[in-house]
Amino acid sequence: MIIQNSMYVRFIGIIVLATIGVIFMISSLPISDTCKCEKSAERDIQHEQFHRSFKELSSTNKHKLAILVPFRDRFDELLRFAPHISAFLNRQQVSFHIFVLNQNDRFRFNRASLINAGFLLVKDQYDYIAMHDVDLLPLNNNLKYEYPENGPLHISGPEFHPKYHYATFIGGILLLKVEHYQLLNGMSNKYWGWGLEDDEFYVRIKEAGLEVNRPRNITTGPENTFL
């Protein structure tokens, strides 16, 4: 009987200690006034707003622009780019859609191949393209993403680009009619890594007899035309 009572007491003691341990664990957890479901709802709203930014508001512009963004592993910049360029072009009432061309392999980056692939995707539904770096955000509202009727339109000219200033530079943001890109047979696929594909494309433009146009009457410079 004594043994049974002793075992019973030990059993009760174990239960009490276990209960105290659970209470201590619960009391030591961080307390938050914000429900996780609320945070999840906020993320859902941000996610929806981000995806909405890939397409324009209603526009009366008869020409449709495909923005081709060569991309790999630059998600923070993309999160800034999409809402910024959408608001910028909506103010100009440009009919546009953003296409993020993601290179998902271990090879060196091939910007030209991504743009060529994007062009093949959009050429039958859009009238002109913008070859657009994801880290170049226009600030000056006088930079018009208008239909490049008279030849390639280089938005980020050397007098405006924050880094590159040589006369034949056509990188950053370049607009072309679909017909002109086809005339040039696209860009060369042989350039892996950063650089040179734009310089070679400039040669193609000149050999085809096209003139590169750039924005005029822009009062900003390399330090404040782009973000």
TrEMBL record:
Keywords assigned by UniProt, alphabetized: Glycoprotein, Glycosyltransferase, Membrane, Signal-anchor, Transferase, Transmembrane, Transmembrane helix
Single GO BP term: proteoglycan biosynthetic process
Residue ranges of coiled coil: none
Cytoplasm recorded as keyword: no
Gene3D superfamilies assigned: Spore Coat Polysaccharide Biosynthesis Protein SpsA, Chain A
Places the protein is found: Membrane
SUPFAM superfamilies: Nucleotide-diphospho-sugar transferases (SSF53448)
Keyword Endoplasmic reticulum: no
Boundaries of every Galactosyltransferase N-terminal domain copy: 52-145
Pathway the protein takes part in: Protein modification; protein glycosylation
GO (cellular component) term, any one: Golgi apparatus
Membrane topology listed for this record: Single-pass type II membrane protein
TM regions (residue ranges): 7-29
Xref: Pfam families: Glyco_transf_7C (PF02709), Glyco_transf_7N (PF13733)
Entry GO MF terms: xylosylprotein 4-beta-galactosyltransferase activity
Major subcellular site: membrane
Domain Galactosyltransferase C-terminal: 152-219
PANTHER family (alphabetical): BETA-1,4-GALACTOSYLTRANSFERASE, BETA-1,4-GALACTOSYLTRANSFERASE 7
Protein name: AAEL007895-PB
Species assigned in the record: Aedes aegypti (Yellowfever mosquito)
Lineage, broadest ranks: Eukaryota, Metazoa, Ecdysozoa, Arthropoda, Hexapoda
